[in-house]
Design a protein that fits this description.
A 4-stranded mixed sheet has the order 22-23-1-24. Strands 2-15-17-16 form a 4-stranded mixed sheet. Strands 4-5-3-14 form a 4-stranded mixed sheet. By secondary structure, the chain is of the alpha/beta class. The chain is globular and about 60 Å long. The two termini are 12 Å apart. The protein has helices at residues 34-46, 60-72, 107-120, 130-133, 138-146, 180-190, 208-215, 251-263, 282-289, 334-343, 363-373, 406-418, 438-444, and strands at 16-19, 25-29, 50-54, 75-81, 84-90, 101-102, 124-127, 150-151, 160-163, 172-174, 196-201, 220-224, 230-235, 244-246, 268-275, 293-302, 305-313, 321-322, 347-350, 377-381, 384-388, 398-400, 423-425, 448-451. The chain has 2 domains: 16-32 and 248-451, UDP-n-acetylglucosamine1-carboxyvinyl-transferase, Chain, CATH 3.65.10; 34-246, Alpha-beta prism (UDP-n-acetylglucosamine1-carboxyvinyl-transferase, Chain), CATH 3.65.10.10. Bound molecules: shikimate-3-phosphate. Shikimate-3-phosphate is lined by residues 35, 108, 179-181, 184, 205-206, 331-332, 355.
C-alpha cells in the first residue's frame, strides 16, 4: 500500500479504511475554522460595504451557508487569487427568498441564519437533511418567538418558516444549554430588535460571534456574572460595517492528525496556524493532563484571534477525569478524545456530555458501539462516557457505523492508523462537511488510509 499518496478521491464517498501506519511525521496547515467561516459569511452579508474573507473553510457545511447568503444578500463572490480563494461579500439589505434555505447537515448554519433572518426582518423557510431535521431547533425558535417572531415549526424541528417581524423586541434571557449556536442566534436577532437584549451565559462557550460583531463595528458589552459565566448586552438598531477577515485553522479538525501522532509510535506532527482561543482548547488541556507531549509554538494573533502551530509527538498517556465544566470548550472533540483514551493506560471519565446526544449523531452511543467493535472498552450513561484504556494499540478489524457523522468517521479512521488490524467505516462522504482534505492531509503525514 502506498503510504504517501491518497488512496481515495479528495472528497471520499462510500466506505473507507485506515491501517497501521509507520510513524506520522511532518507539518501541515489546518483547514479553516468552521465556526468562524460560517460567521464571516453571515456577518459579511449583514454588513454595509464589501467584506473580504481569506482562508474560508470550503467544506459542505460552510458552502451551504454561502449558498443561503447568495439567496439573502446582494452579492457573494469567490475569486481565485495567487494567495488562494478570496470571498467577497456585498452585504445588506437582505431580501426574503422565494425558495427554502437548504442547510444540509449544518446545525451551525441553520441556527445562526435563523437569528440573522429575524434581525434582518425578512421572511425565510429552512430545511436540511435527515440528520438536521432530527435535531432540536426549539432552543433557537423559542427565544426568537419571545422577541415577537412567528414560526411554523412542528415540535421545534425543521422544516420551519420564519415570518418577518417588523417590531422585534429585545429580550432578557438566560441560556439553559451552553450553546454558542443559540447565543449567536439571539445576538444576531438582537441587532434588529428594539431595546437592549441581555443574554446571561452561565457557562462560557465559544465567543467568535461576539469578537466578530465587535470587529464589524457593533457595540456590545460583556460583564462577568460573579460565577463561571457572563452577561452580554447588545443594543438593537445597530448596523455593521464591512471588514476583512482571515480565518484561522480549526482546532477541532487539527485534533485528528495530532491525536493520530500521539497514539502512533515514533510520530512527530505539527499542524500550523491553529486557532487557540481558550474557549476552544479544552481538548489540548485534557491531552496535556494525560501526559501528552504537545506544544503550542509560534503563538501569535491573527484577525483578533490567538493562533499557534501545534506540535504533537507520540506519548505514553494515562487516563484522566474530564470535568463537566470543560465540555463547552471541547464539545466536538469527545469522539477523538475517546479514541486517544482507549490507547492510554487506565480509565478516562468524561462528564457533562448531554449535548453529545443531539449532535450530528448520538455521539455517546456511536463512540461506545464503535469502540466495542474494535476491541476498546467503553461504558456510558445519559451524560457521561467512561473509556478503559488498553495502554496501546486496539485490535481493529471491524466495520464501524458512522451514522453519517463526520467526526465519528474521522475518529475511527485515526484509530485504524494505530490498530493491529485495519478499521473500516461504512461511509466517508460526510467528512466533506467539515474537512474535505482529510484524506490528503493524513496521507501527506504518512497515514495509510483511503476510500475502500
Ligand atoms: C458551534 C457550536 C457548537 C459546536 C458546533 C459549532 C458554533 O454547537 O458543536 O460544531 O459554531 O457555534 P453548540 O453551540 O450547539 O454546542
Amino acid at each position: 500500500m502506498n503510504a504517501t499518496k491518497a488512496r481515495g478521491p479528495r472528497r471520499g464517498g462510500g466506505k473507507a479504511d485506515a491501517r497501521q501506519s509507520g510513524p506520522l511525521t511532518g507539518a501541515a496547515a489546518a483547514p479553516g475554522d468552521k465556526s468562524i467561516s460560517h460567521r464571516a459569511l453571515i456577518l459579511g452579508a449583514l454588513a454595509r460595504g464589501e467584506t473580504r474573507v481569506r482562508g474560508l473553510l470550503e467544506a459542505d457545511d460552510v458552502l451551504r451557508t454561502a449558498a443561503a447568503m447568495r439567496m439573502l444578500a446582494p452579492e457573494v463572490e469567490r475569486d481565485r487569487t495567487r494567495e488562494g480563494a478570496l470571498w467577497r461579500i456585498a452585504g445588506a439589505p437582505w431580501r426574503s427568498p422565494e425558495k427554502s434555505l437548504y442547510l444540509g447537515n449544518s446545525g451551525t448554519g441553520a441556527r445562526l441564519i435563523m437569528g440573522a433572518v429575524a434581525g434582518a426582518k425578512v421572511s425565510a423557510a429552512f430545511d436540511g437533511d435527515a440528520s438536521l431535521r432530527s435535531r432540536p431547533m426549539g432552543r433557537v425558535l423559542e427565544p426568537l418567538r419571545m422577541m415577537g417572531l412567528e414560526t411554523s415549526d412542528q415540535n421545534g424541528r425543521l422544516p420551519v418558516a420564519l415570518e418577518a417581524c417588523q417590531d422585534l423586541k429585545a429580550i432578557t434571557v438566560k441560556l439553559t444549554t451552553p450553546s454558542a449556536q443559540v447565543k449567536s442566534a439571539i445576538l444576531l436577532a438582537a441587532l434588529g430588535a428594539q431595546g437592549v437584549t441581555r443574554v446571561h451565559e452561565p457557562e462560557l462557550c465559544r465567543d467568535h460571534t461576539e469578537r466578530m460583531l465587535a470587529a464589524f463595528g457593533a457595540e456590545l458589552s460583556m460583564t462577568p456574572d460573579g460565577g463561571q459565566g457572563r452577561f452580554i448586552e447588545i443594543a438593537g438598531g445597530q448596523s455593521l460595517t464591512a471588514c476583512d477577515v482571515i480565518v484561522p485553522g480549526d482546532p477541532s479538525s487539527a485534533a485528528f492528525p495530532l491525536a493520530a501522532a500521539l497514539i502512533t509510535p515514533g510520530s512527530d506532527v505539527t499542524v500550523r496556524g491553529v486557532l487557540v482561543n481558550p474557549l476552544r482548547t479544552g481538548f489540548y488541556e485534557t491531552l496535556r493532563e494525560m501526559g501528552a507531549d504537545i506544544a503550542f509554538e509560534n503563538e501569535r494573533e491573527e484577525s483578533g484571534e490567538p493562533v499557534a502551530d501545534i506540535r504533537a509527538r507520540h506519548s505514553v498517556l494515562h487516563g484522566v477525569e474530564v470535568p463537566a465544566s470543560r465540555a463547552p470548550s471541547m464539545i466536538d472533540e469527545y469522539p477523538i478524545l475517546a479514541i486517544v483514551a482507549a490507547h492510554a493506560h487506565g480509565e478516562t471519565m468524561m462528564h457533562g456530555l448531554e449535548e453529545l446526544r443531539v449532535k450530528e449523531s448520538d455521539r455517546i452511543a456511536s463512540v461506545e458501539a464503535g469502540l466495542a467493535a474494535i476491541g476498546g472498552d467503553a461504558a456510558s450513561g445519559p451524560d457521561w462516557l467512561r473509556v478503559r484504556g488498553k495502554g496501546g494499540a486496539l485490535k481493529g478489524g471491524a466495520l464501524i457505523k458512522t451514522h453519517h457523522d463526520h467526526r465519528i468517521a474521522m475518529s475511527f479512521l485515526v484509530a485504524g492508523l494505530a490498530g493491529e488490524k485495519p478499521v473500516e467505516i461504512d461511509d466517508a462522504s460526510m467528512i466533506a462537511t467539515s474537512f474535505p482534505d482529510f484524506f490528503a492531509l493524513m496521507t501527506s503525514l504518512g497515514g495509510d488510509l483511503g476510500v475502500s
